[in-house]
């Protein structure tokens, strides 16, 4: 069974967010990816990211 397209797109988006996140740019990334800042921080937190220095 293959993942649905939406799941693949979200995984790809999240991987991009993880690479671009520097601990201080959550607001910019949320805007870039069409997310709320709270939702972006939830994605980061659920994947083990903390505020980077």
Automatic annotation (TrEMBL):
Pfam families: Mor. It comes from the Bacteria. SUPFAM superfamilies: Homeodomain-like (SSF46689). InterPro entries: Homeodomain-like_sf (IPR009057), Mor_transcription_activator (IPR014875). Residues 2-46 form the Mor transcription activator domain. This is Mor transcription activator domain-containing protein.
């Amino acid at each position: 069974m293959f993942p649905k397209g939406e799941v693949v797109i979200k995984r790809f988006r999240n991987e991009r967010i993880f690479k671009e996140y520097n601990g201080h740019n959550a607001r910019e990334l949320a805007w870039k990816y069409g997310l709320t800042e709270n939702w972006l921080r939830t994605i980061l937190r659920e994947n083990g990211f903390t505020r980077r220095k």
